[in-house]
């Protein structure tokens, strides 16, 4: 199963990137320069993940060469290399080869899988989610018959949901005595994440179509509630006070769309509170 996670991640990443490129060309050819510019703008936040990849590369003691920098500028750094200082470096293809050689049982494979999942989740939240919102709005409010924006939105939704599932899969493997979840469990998680994200995105898009900029007020209230709630939980992922507040604010924005567990231990109560507030 561990070998299947990076393989499917790579496939969805390629499909999502191809559909995004087709959407950009689609807007350019049709002269819709406004949507073309906004679609290009959705690529910019993704450079934060690319920059983090380069910083992790330097932290491992490897000076990034020109070819690696070019790949990151083209936002292909995740295909080439991701890593964190304590776990070393890895590549998607390295994960696949290591999983094939060891049957997915080696600790090195788990570390490499974690590198991929963490960085991919960051990229998905920063880049895929804004692109999904934009293309969904185009399909619902601007061009109901837009096939290419619709395909791009659908693949972005699936890719974002899989990024969340693969991260959950990795955190499950980190728990002592836990084995790799069966394929049926992973499929159910994917359906749950896809349905949850899809309904929230659709609700926001429809609200924006009817009430225009009032959607930002609704999302802002939800963001504040989630940020204060995260602060009340006293999460210890970030130690510095300023960074801790920034982390809670950023995660509060993510909680507008989905729940990510950031504390060890049972999370049933926290999930129940999240859905009670978000429903």
Automatic annotation (TrEMBL):
It is a multi-pass membrane protein. Its main location: membrane. It is found in: Cell membrane; Membrane. Pfam families: XK-related. The chain crosses the membrane at residues 33-57, 136-164, 184-206, 213-232, 244-262. InterPro entries: XK-rel, XK-related_scramblase. Keywords: Cell membrane, Membrane, Transmembrane, Transmembrane helix. GO terms for cellular component: plasma membrane. Belongs to the XK family. This is XK-related protein. It comes from Promerops cafer. The gene is Xkr5.
